[in-house]
Design brief:
The structure holds two protein chains of two kinds. Chain A is an all-alpha fold. In chain A, about 80% of the residues lie in helices and about 0% in strands. Chain B has one domain. The longest helix of chain B has about 35 residues. In chain B, helix 2 packs parallel to helix 4, helix 5 packs antiparallel against helix 6 and helix 13 packs across helix 16. Classes of the chains: A mainly alpha, B mainly alpha.
Chain lengths: ~220, ~500
């Protein structure tokens, strides 16, 4: 049973990586939200698993908080946003799909390379997944940078936070409770602010295309 | 190890953090009454009083640890706490007539004024929390919260340009701050191996005590992430792109506190991490990384100054230049360079916020931020004109202002420790001097095109800051020298 659960952590990590790849290539906003929800669920499962294996009960609390925030609350809010803003379709990425995949694979290789010496030093049972966590963080960065629309950028931001959270669980069996709660609060606030912003951008530009935001040129 | 007085002085620190938080709640509840600005000033004044009390408590070089070691005060952060509270106070004085004029001109509405005042106090509270916390995780949370407050403040005019600047600010700083979180995570990983998990493993004082035993591989990677992450917020090149937009499009009081305070707080976070990384690595690598980032920022910003058309953008680039110089100084390390860096931090905060105060009123008088369209300020309003001129001379490092003294210290230590960097710095300073002075001179002197303002501008803060900068340039009292030296020793190098 224990061996099976230890294996399961690697499974969850692999699922997270696949989801991250699915997200960077997904063009429909609604599907992005579904993928984000799936990512949240995987995260909850991984946290519970690590919590059970290491008998760290604070991880159960943080798994519960993650479930409420990232599987229930944020997806509901995202669905509401999509309904109100009518942006179900057509996200044009700045890079085409094959190119995105290629860059993504390079990022994963880079992340694994970076994480190997550290994972070797970690005493956590899930240390082998640190590379995957870092890869997911980098893939989310890429999603934030290459998407032209506001909503996918925000989902990129949220998925990056998910990946960081997984990194925390994988490498150190979770950060101290106080810090985790603070991070969750910041993410929620940030999301709410971005949501309000999207309405304001829409009001000002009649579109959520970030390309309209190019008046301030680089000097 | 420094002498610790555990649990002895919770009161001033509690009040220091409670004042702005309660102030924010009060201002949010008060709504859009006319006294919002006055309450804002009063709350900021109370915060400053608490900061001075706290300064008196630790004046003898003691370290205070309170609330299960969650907060701590030593010579280094009390310096920045006092500076933050003071500049927050003077900016609130400046903001009172400034925002009233903005409201008369229709750029602000009553509900936005309420948001503005509440967020202003919350922003100050988060910066003070970031400065005083002992927990590196809480430091991250407070930095992110401060970012969120300023995102709302930058976008408060709701113009397309303001929204764009705020969006860019949020996304870029979001990426940056996520890197800092990963860095914090790695630090926790290193500490976890050494002193066990739980709250204690992220407490800076605990980490500092075992810094030489921290795993060097992890710490070097952690420092890279932390430097890039918090460096984004400090405005270091090449992760500075949010800074000019956020400074130019937000209200001027916010430009003043962003430049004068938030950049300092982010740099403070880097410094705390550098102490740990230095201890673990013992090879000076963190310092060298900071030297490189600092030098790049100074050079790039100096050469971009002359291309600016917008006055607030120009001074935003000047902030990048100065933050680069300070980062460079701390990168050099050693008591003199650190002393110079801390002095420069103080001087830059005072001078740059004074400049933004003058610039704010100048732009209101001319009805534009485009420099070519602002002419002859002294004819209509000698105080604003001279405030801008003297501030500019001060920020460019003219003696006898304080920036001359701190730049002199930094340059001489550069010549001693890193001879090849000194000519580059001198070149950048000379280029910046020419570029900024050529822009500011016609704005201040010559034929005028500006109009009078409906409310008298608040110029006391401008001349208070410049006067302080001048006084410290002429003579630094011995107790301040001791204080700065103690703080400089804490950074090490």
């Amino acid at each position: 049973m224990i061996a099976l659960l230890t294996q399961a952590i690697n499974l969850f990590a692999a699922i997270l990586l696949i989801l991250a790849f699915a997200m960077i290539t997904q063009r429909r906003v609604l599907n992005l939200v579904h993928l984000f929800t799936a990512q949240g669920l995987t995260l909850v499962a991984a946290t519970l698993d690590v919590g059970y294996l290491t008998a760290q009960h604070h991880l159960y609390v943080s798994a519960g908080a993650t479930f409420l925030l990232k599987v229930v609350l944020l997806p509901i809010l995202l669905h509401k946003l999509i309904d109100r803003l009518q942006v179900r379709w057509d996200v044009e990425p700045l890079l085409n799909t094959p190119m995105t995949m290629l860059v993504g694979i390079l990022l994963v290789a880079f992340a694994f390379n970076l994480a190997t010496p550290i994972a070797a030093l970690s005493s956590s049972i899930a240390r082998s997944t640190l590379g995957i966590a870092l890869a997911s963080v980098l893939l989310s960065f890429m999603m934030m940078i290459t998407r032209a629309k506001a909503l996918p950028q925000v989902i990129g931001f949220l998925s990056m936070e998910n990946s960081l959270f997984f990194a925390a669980t994988a490498a150190t069996n979770g950060m101290p409770m106080l810090v985790e709660l603070g991070i969750a609060l910041d993410v929620l606030m940030g999301f709410l602010i971005l949501g309000v912003f999207m309405f304001q951008i829409r009001e000002q530009f009649d579109s959520l295309d970030i390309h309209h935001l190019e008046r301030l040129r680089e000097d | 190890m420094l002498p610790l007085t555990l649990g002895a002085s919770e009161l001033p620190l509690t009040l220091l953090l409670a004042c702005p938080i309660l102030g924010a709640a009060l201002l949010a509840l008060l709504g859009h009454t006319r006294i919002g600005a006055e309450v804002n000033v009063l709350v900021s004044a109370a915060t400053t009083a608490c900061a001075l009390w706290l300064t008196a408590e630790v004046a003898r070089g003691t370290t205070i640890l309170v609330y299960h070691e969650l907060f701590f005060i030593d010579s280094l952060n009390v310096l920045l706490v006092t500076l933050t509270a003071f500049v927050g106070f003077t900016t609130s004085i400046f903001s009172r007539p400034y925002m009233r004029i903005e409201r008369d001109q229709g750029r602000m509405t009553a509900p936005r004024m309420r948001l503005y005042h509440a967020m202003y106090q919350l922003f100050l509270a988060m910066m003070l929390c970031a400065l005083t916390t002992n927990n590196l995780g809480v430091l991250w949370v407070a930095m992110e919260a401060a970012t969120l407050c300023t995102v709302l403040l930058v976008s408060v005019y709701r113009t397309p340009a303001a929204l764009e600047a705020a969006w860019k600010y949020f996304i870029l700083c979001g990426v940056g701050i996520a890197q800092a979180l990963f860095g914090t995570l790695l630090l926790y990983l290193a500490a976890d191996r050494l002193i066990g998990g739980g709250e204690g493993a992220l407490l800076w004082t605990h980490l500092e005590a075992v810094k030489t035993q921290l795993e060097p591989t992890i710490l070097s990677l952690a420092f890279v992430f932390l430097l890039l992450g918090y460096g984004t917020k400090t405005g270091l090149v090449p992760v500075h792109h949010w800074l000019p937009d956020a400074h130019a499009e937000g209200p001027t009081p916010i430009s003043a506190v962003l430049s004068g305070l938030l950049l300092n707080v982010a740099l403070y976070a880097i410094l705390r991490c550098k102490v740990l990384a230095d201890g673990a690595l013992g090879n000076g690598l963190p310092g060298r990384a900071m030297v490189v980032f600092g030098l790049m920022s100074v050079l790039l910003a100096a050469f971009l100054l002359h291309r600016q058309r917008d006055i607030k953008r120009m001074f935003a680039y000047s902030s990048i230049e100065h933050m680069g110089l300070i980062t460079f100084a701390f990168g050099l390390g050693g008591p003199i360079a650190n002393f110079g860096g801390l002095l420069h931090m103080t001087m830059h905060s005072l001078t740059k916020s004074a400049i933004f105060f003058a610039v704010g009123h100048a732009a209101q008088k001319a009805g534009t931020q485009v420099m070519d369209e602002i002419r002859g300020l002294v004819q209509i309003s000698p105080t604003v004109g001279w405030g801008l001129m003297l501030g500019t001379l001060a920020i460019l490092g003219m003696p006898p202002f304080g920036i001359f003294a701190s730049e002199f210290l930094i340059l001489t230590s550069a010549m001693r420790q890193l001879p090849w960097a000194a000519p580059l710095l001198l070149l950048a300073l000379a280029v910046a001097f020419g570029a900024v002075l050529a822009r500011v001179q016609p704005m201040v002197f010559g034929e005028t095109n500006v109009k009078r303002l409906p409310h008298p501008p608040a110029l006391i803060p401008v001349f208070t800051h410049l006067g302080l900068g001048l006084a410290l340039g002429l003579f630094i009292p011995p107790f301040l020298v001791n204080w700065y030296s103690r703080a400089a020793n804490l950074i090490g190098g």
